[in-house]
């Protein structure tokens, strides 16, 4: 069966091999199993349903919310000789009916529809007499309220499928991999014991780095200046930051463009075009930039601020190096970014449940910014990709050749302080107590009487807070949910306190280690 699929891959698309995840998805589908394919954008999802569609009887229904892309998708299929068509609100009256009749006559293998179609009785009637063997659902996270893009009309998919005279095979695809969303997709789309395939999140050509404590502005200018011949994107959190960076890059004589939702359609279009055609090399933008943009030779993506979660980060960073050539993804982290993101969460009118979910996701992003572990592996692990997990050798963690020092004693000081404060305070309060701060709140709670008060006074509060963040990222401690998260000990911290486990950290050689550990 797979041999036949491979033949079609070569015949229609001219590719000699399936990607690893495609093989797993197509195999499951050919075995007649419902499938949930989780793959990053650009991972090659379309082929996962297009090839099975060619191998099955009847018509494959493809549900997609991206009306503006439908025509392109169908045109692309025509170019390679696959008969397909689409139905959406852009069609003139009468045209939809004509296409459906043609589909009934077996003229098409794939029929793309917008989910709103499913609400039409007229459409459902027709579908009852059509031979639909397979339903593929693109952007399946739209069915979940946990996703970033909930579409009420997706809720109609499951009842629609249930009402068909014979139940077709169902496959759902998404690039969003959080457990809540995955669970929702399987449940709300009524997948039948689906094969879940998570794949393709590894991008070997991306050199990931997290830079903490750099002067962001200088870094951006120096980097853009040193790479004027290469296309790159700089993402900033706010329109104001975008405008400022843009102005300054321009003033320094760099061919920069900008993009954010505050600009006119006309200017956005023009700037995007200029970037696509290499008239400007560096694009300064908010996260509004990038959807549906396929520029393969982006050589670097700099995040001027930490984004709100890992999905957003990896989607944006992943716009680098689509052509497979080495590219850099740099995230410039500062503690201020955490506050900004919390502010944004609080500003949105979210249900308590939603809010706590946003905080949880933000924390995983903060963890990424602090982990000493290989960043590639960290990302794969986060997305649940079962690919191989050897350190990439290429990220800022792997290339960190600073000395590894034993910080067990420091970690013990922190853990015991957290415990003595009854695990009821946040990072800055714990850092304040360890530092021996005279802060009003510290004194009010009488923390100056704790044996752990001031036992790290040789370090700055910021250093202590950084260390606490590292220990959280490493899973020794956790943060409670909410706007004022509280630091709590996790099981591994207890092992450290009992002296059964050592803790190590990378430290710059210039930093006097003795004073850090020994006081
Ligand atoms: P997605 O829908 O996951 O964003 P696409 O299906 O658009 O991704 O595929 C992304 C790109 O990868 C396309 O240019 C596609 O032709 C290419 N591609 C997909 N599968 C293969 C393969 N097996 N070999 C080579 N290129 C592939
Ligand atoms: Zn690495």
UniProtKB/TrEMBL annotation:
GO terms for biological process: DNA recombination; DNA repair; DNA replication; SOS response. Keywords: ATP-binding, DNA damage, DNA recombination, DNA repair, DNA-binding, Helicase, Hydrolase, Isomerase, Metal-binding, Nucleotide-binding, Zinc. The gene is recQ. One of its GO terms (cellular component) is replisome. Residues 215-363 form the Helicase C-terminal domain. InterPro entries: DEAD/DEAH_box_helicase_dom, DNA_helicase_ATP-dep_RecQ, DNA_helicase_ATP-dep_RecQ_bac, Helicase_ATP-bd, Helicase_C-like, HRDC-like_sf, HRDC_dom, HRDC_dom_sf. Belongs to the helicase family. RecQ subfamily. It catalyses: Couples ATP hydrolysis with the unwinding of duplex DNA by translocating in the 3'-5' direction. Residues 26-195 form the Helicase ATP-binding domain. Pfam families: DEAD, Helicase_C, HRDC, RecQ_Zn_bind, RQC. One of its GO terms (molecular function) is 3'-5' DNA helicase activity. This is DNA helicase RecQ. It comes from Paenibacillus lutrae. Its EC number is 5.6.2.4. Its cofactor is Zn(2+); Mg(2+). The keyword Isomerase applies.
């Amino acid at each position: 069966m797979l041999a036949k699929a491979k033949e079609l891959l070569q015949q229609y698309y001219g590719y000699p091999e399936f990607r690893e995840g495609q093989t797993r998805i197509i195999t499951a589908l050919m075995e007649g199993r419902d499938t949930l394919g989780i793959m990053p954008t650009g991972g090659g999802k379309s082929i996962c349903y297009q090839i099975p569609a060619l191998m099955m009887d009847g018509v494959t229904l493809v549900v997609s919310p991206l009306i503006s892309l439908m025509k392109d998708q169908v045109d692309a299929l025509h170019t390679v000789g696959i008969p397909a068509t689409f139905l959406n609100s852009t069609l003139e009256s009468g045209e939809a009916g004509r296409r459906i009749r043609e589909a009934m006559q077996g003229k098409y293998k794939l029929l793309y529809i917008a989910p709103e179609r499913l609400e039409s009785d007229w459409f459902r009637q027709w579908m009852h007499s059509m031979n639909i063997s397979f339903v593929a659902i693109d952007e399946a996270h739209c069915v979940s309220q946990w996703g970033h893009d909930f579409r009420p009309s997706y809720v109609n998919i499951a009842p629609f499928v249930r009402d068909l005279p014979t139940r077709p095979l169902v496959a759902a695809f998404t690039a969003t991999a959080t457990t809540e969303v995955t669970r929702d997709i399987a449940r709300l789309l009524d997948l039948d014991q689906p094969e879940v395939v998570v794949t393709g999140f590894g991008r070997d050509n991306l050199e990931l780095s997290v830079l903490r404590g750099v002067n962001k502005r200088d870094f951006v200018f120096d980097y853009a200046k040193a790479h004027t011949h290469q296309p790159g994107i700089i993402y900033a959190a706010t329109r104001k930051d975008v405008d400022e960076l843009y102005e300054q890059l321009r003033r320094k004589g760099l061919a920069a463009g900008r993009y954010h939702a505050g600009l006119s359609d006309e200017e956005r279009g023009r700037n995007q075009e200029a970037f696509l055609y290499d008239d400007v090399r560096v694009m300064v933008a908010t996260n509004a930039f990038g959807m549906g943009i396929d520029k393969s030779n982006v050589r670097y993506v700099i995040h001027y601020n930490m984004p709100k979660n890992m999905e957003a980060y990896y989607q944006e960073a992943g716009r680098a190096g689509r052509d497979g050539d080495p590219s850099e993804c740099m995230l410039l982290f500062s503690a201020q970014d955490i506050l900004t993101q919390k502010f944004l969460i609080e500003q949105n009118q979210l249900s308590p449940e939603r809010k706590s979910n946003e905080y949880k996701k933000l924390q995983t992003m903060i963890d990424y910014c602090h982990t000493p572990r290989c960043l590639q592996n960290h990302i794969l692990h986060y997305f649940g990709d079962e690919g191989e997990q050897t350190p990439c050798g290429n990220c800022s963690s792997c290339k960190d050749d600073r000395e590894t020092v034993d910080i067990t004693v420091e970690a013990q000081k922190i853990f015991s302080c957290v415990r003595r404060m009854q695990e009821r305070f946040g990072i800055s309060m714990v850092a304040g107590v360890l530092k021996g701060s005279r802060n009003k709140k510290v004194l009010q709670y009488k923390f100056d009487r704790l044996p752990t008060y001031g036992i790290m006074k040789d370090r700055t509060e910021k250093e202590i807070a950084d260390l606490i963040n590292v220990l959280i990222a490493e899973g020794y401690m956790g943060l409670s949910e909410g706007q004022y998260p509280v630091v709590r000990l996790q099981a591994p911290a207890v092992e450290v306190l009992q002296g059964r486990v050592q803790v190590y950290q990378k430290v710059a050689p210039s930093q006097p280690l003795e004073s850090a550990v020994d006081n």
